[in-house]
User: Fold this.
Amino acid sequence: MARSDFLRNRIGLCILHPITECAGKPVAIEHVNGSLEQGSFPRDISPHQPFFDLRSLSYEVANTGISARLEMEGDTFEMEDQRNWTDASFKTYCTPLALPLPHPVKTGDRVEQSVALSLSGNVRPILPVNLGRPPQLSISTTPVVTLPPIVCASRVMVVRSTLRNWTG
Assistant:
């Protein structure tokens, strides 16, 4: 709850979708008005937002046979291609750029949003949670793509390394 009046551009949740796994792939879109659209993540860098007025997105996760459905509530979401800023993701964010900014938030206002992730298809069973222990979400740390070399440079020397043998 807002404790004072202030102006905002965006307050909210962002969802990052990885480029390698998503670019050029199909995506099912549900818009805020309930209409459905079948589309594709842009294969080439998109200078404009590829999708507007989003309520949910569904797509296959990296040829795994697992389908992900993301349902967003609390604001209107849209997507931009982060490759425009050298990031390797599509970003789903809220407060559409077409709305006038800044937007006022008044004392007592609540900004409430949620994103629900549902998985279907070739999903492994989830082990039961021990009583009294909080639920946990685990994400595999096994690389699925080869990581590029990293170069650190200074006026004095150049150090080359890769993530495989870099110790910090």
The first strand starts at residue 6 and ends at 8. The two ends are 41 Å apart (CA to CA). The chain is about 0% helix and 40% strand. Confidence is low (pLDDT under 50) at residues 156-168.
